[in-house]
Amino acid sequence: MKNAMVRSLLKGRRYEICEITIRGKSLVGRFIDDLGKEEQQKLTALLKRTSDEGPPANREKFKKLEDDLYEFKSFQVRVFCTIRGARIILINGVVKKKDRHDQEDIDKAKRLLAEAGLEMKKEDKDGTQKLAAGKDRKVRR
């Protein structure tokens, strides 16, 4: 029996925003609830806009960290995510206190993805993603 699963949060015109839950508990929801009201509003607006228009091109708001791992950014607030087709799956959140991420934060996001049955995808220089099952697919940019 899996302890982790993916649950839909918000469906926009272009993307569905989902989250990983562990034993029925929302990691991202709990993280957002613990933020101040202003940070909650900014992050919620960013997610809503992304569901309607797609990931922001502004690296100050959305950034690729490695392979198949991205982050939504709002000042020091970070929410890790991955993209699967028209689904953006939120993994967990952190408040960044240093210039660089702690490797532990990135490793935790990868572990949670694996626990939810979502393997990380490796991307080659030519834009082909190497899937865990050994199949390749070209990524559209």
Protein architecture, described:
- The chain has 141 residues and is an alpha+beta fold.
- The chain has one domain: RelE-like (YaeB-like fold).
- Helices cover 27% and strands 38% of the residues.
- It has three helices and ten strands, in the order βββααββββαβββ.
- It has helices at 27-34, 37-53, 103-115, and strands at 4-11, 16-22, 25-26, 62-66, 69-74, 77-84, 87-95, 122-123, 128-130, 136-138.
- The strands form two sheets. Strands 1, 2, 3, 4, 5, 6 and 7 form a seven-stranded mixed β-sheet that branches. Strands 8-9-10 form a three-stranded antiparallel β-sheet, with no helix packed on it.
- The relative contact order is 0.17.
- Residues 124-141 have low confidence and may be disordered.
Task: Supply the key terms.
27% helix, disordered C terminus, 141 residues, 3 helices, three-stranded antiparallel β-sheet, seven-stranded mixed β-sheet, globular, YaeB-like fold, alpha+beta
How would you briefly describe this protein structure?
Helices cover 27% and strands 38% of the residues. It contains 3 helices and 10 strands, in the order βββααββββαβββ.
Portion in helices: 25-40%
Give the helix tally: 3
Which structural class matches the secondary elements? alpha+beta
Q: How confident is the prediction overall: mean pLDDT?
A: 84
The count of β-strands is: 10
Overall spatial form? globular
The run of helices and strands is EEEHHEEEEHEEE
Report the span from N to C terminus: 36 Å
In what range is the share of β-strand residues? Answer: 35-45%
> What is the CATH C level class, in words?
Alpha Beta
CATH superfamily membership? RelE-like
Largest sheet: 7 strands, mixed
Low-confidence stretches: 124-141
Q: What is the gyration radius calculated from CA atoms?
A: 15 Å
Say what the CATH topology is: YaeB-like fold
Level-2 CATH architecture: 2-Layer Sandwich
How many domains make up the 3D coordinates?
1
